[in-house]
What we know:
By secondary structure, the chain is α/β, with parallel strands linked by helices. The protein contains 12 helices and 12 strands. Strand 5 (about 155-160), helix 8 (about 170-175) and strand 6 form a beta-alpha-beta unit.
Amino acid sequence: MRCFKLLLLSAALCLPPALAAAAECGPEALGTARTLEVPFTQGPVGKASYGRTLPLERGEVVLTFDDGPLPRRTQAVLDALKAECVKATFFVVGSMVAQFPDTLRQTAAAGHTIASHTWSHRYLDRVRSPEVRRDQINGGLEAVRTVLTDDAPALSPFFRFPGLGHSPALDRYATGQKLVPFSIDVDGDDWKKISPQAVMDRVIRRLDAAGRGIILLHDIQPRTVAILPALLRELKARRYRVVHVVPARDDTKAALAALDAPQGRPIRLALDRLGARMASLRVAARPAEGPPRQVAEEAPLLLRAGLFEEADVPPAPRDQSRSGEEVRVALVADGGPAGGPAPRDGWSGFVVIGTAPHAAGFRAVAEAGQPPAR
Length: 374
């Protein structure tokens, strides 16, 4: 009997990732049906912006979450995904990564794909300055790189324009940086002032109409946190299957090699301090004896009232001097093609107002019941 148990244990350890996850959660879980490698040569994707999407079979969906990380809400999303053995893609904002790097590391450690969503959620199709566009696009990726390091398997060259606001020139620049622009097929509208049930109903109704596709939700939104466990169960009940998208490793290396370091002083300063903070964290974790010493995350962001709600008018001008004490970030509600009308006077998305001190070409790489195809 003892030998039999050892054989069972060794067999479980040798299972492919998809099968191992399914064994952990059980047959009642939604699970991740397969992993799809999305190469740079096949971007951009997403019918909302590009008229074509990933080569998904009917009933297959890709879950994506924008605008984090935000510790409590992102953690709640991670918990819901883990309970159903589901892998997703997180399009993170660089200024949020700089504030909450530990949450990003937890997301990556859970096996999700990490993608970038600019430095501070500026609507780039409304920005005239090439320098600002460059810094926004590259700053988001550099923040992720600083936290995860170049060889992190979760790091990807996938990129999403805030508000899905793109242009031919922006697409050319992004692809020139070896990034893969990701749009969407199904919008949950969780950024709007609607009930959690309304978000659930819209996702299911639109997904049923499309039959497959890339779903957009936001891990910073309380509505998403509220409905995600039930949404995953409903996907299972309707026989939808989750596909986890990953990059080709060489594509990630190419994007990092092409990365054009941001030159704007506020972003550069925040990235330098993030780098110093991560270096101290790695030094603290180095001793071989005893558990690694944890470096606590900074105090929560100072958020203006209504951060997670729509704003009809921009907030009053705020002091943008560097206090040397904390990062201050404001968020004006999403807008543009996937987010409705934007607030006036150019306000859009995350705005840093302070600084901190401290088909062809796609390859299925793993499916449930099969070994990885690498």
